[in-house]
């Protein structure tokens, strides 16, 4: 398994002509995972050697604009470059509670219809992840809203006694989120490679002494 990281933006607060807002891509076996999507991320992708169409997962660390204001535009561009495919797997998007509502409202207000499915998996923060005056509970924002049926996705809580959220697992990797402490609820993401035991020909070793 090979992993390659490309930094698309490392700027803080706002992009500059030579430095994009926060975004990086992890490329793994032909698939791209995008971590944060600040303003101008899709332009930075066009300047890189990466193909935006390869993005299969997006992870948003927190809901400050310089980390996710580029997301609706990127999704719309990906849609313009797509063709309808009923069998296509959803684009998985992970981020703090409130991200699903933001995307639904952004796409609805801009009359944007995506040609591919996506699923928003929201991480429920704990109140101690930011100063008390900054903590907002977005869990019931859309309860009474007359919006079209939103995208599917999980709501992921921190299990009692655990210090991380289990997001993805396959035969090679485990992906977890862990709490960060910032002015708003924030999350870091860690990829843990599973052990890969080698293959030994025991009999040949014995024959060779």
From TrEMBL:
Q: Which cofactor does it need?
A: Zn(2+)
Query: Per UniProt, what is one Pfam family of this protein?
Result: Anti-Pycsar_Apyc1
Gene3D superfamilies assigned? Ribonuclease Z/Hydroxyacylglutathione hydrolase-like
Sorted UniProt keywords: Endonuclease, Hydrolase, Metal-binding, Nuclease, tRNA processing, Zinc
Please give the SUPFAM superfamilies that the UniProt record associates with this protein: Metallo-hydrolase/oxidoreductase
InterPro entries listed in its UniProt record = RibonucZ/Hydroxyglut_hydro (IPR036866), RNase_Z/BN (IPR013471)
Superkingdom, natural source:
Eukaryota
Q: Name one GO cellular component term.
A: nucleus
- In Gene Ontology terms, what is one molecular function of this protein? metal ion binding
Q: What is the protein's quaternary organization?
A: Homodimer.
**Can you name this protein?**
RNZ1 protein
The scientific name of the source species is Aegithalos caudatus (Long-tailed tit)
- Species lineage, top-down? Eukaryota, Metazoa, Chordata, Craniata, Vertebrata
What is the gene called?
Elac1
């Amino acid at each position: 398994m090979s992993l390659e990281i490309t930094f698309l933006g490392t700027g803080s607060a706002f992009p500059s002509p030579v430095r994009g807002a926060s975004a990086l891509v992890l490329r793994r076996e032909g698939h791209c995972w995008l971590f944060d999507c600040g303003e101008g991320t899709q332009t930075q992708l066009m300047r890189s050697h990466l193909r935006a169409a390869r993005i299969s997962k997006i992870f948003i660390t927190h809901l400050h604009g310089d980390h996710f204001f580029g997301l609706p535009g990127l999704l719309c561009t990906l849609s313009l470059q797509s063709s309808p495919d009923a069998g296509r797997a959803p684009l998985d998007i992970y981020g703090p509670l409130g991200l699903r509502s933001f995307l639904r409202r952004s796409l609805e207000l801009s009359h944007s219809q995506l040609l591919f499915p996506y699923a928003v998996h929201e991480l429920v923060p704990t109140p101690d992840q930011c100063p008390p005056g900054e903590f907002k509970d977005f869990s019931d924002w859309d309860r009474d809203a007359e919006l079209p049926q939103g995208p599917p996705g999980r709501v992921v809580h921190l299990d009692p006694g655990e210090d991380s959220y289990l997001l993805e697992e396959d035969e090679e990797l485990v992906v977890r989120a862990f709490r960060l402490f910032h002015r708003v609820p924030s999350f870091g993401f860690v990829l843990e490679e599973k052990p890969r035991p080698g293959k030994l020909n025991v009999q040949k070793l014995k024959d060779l002494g």
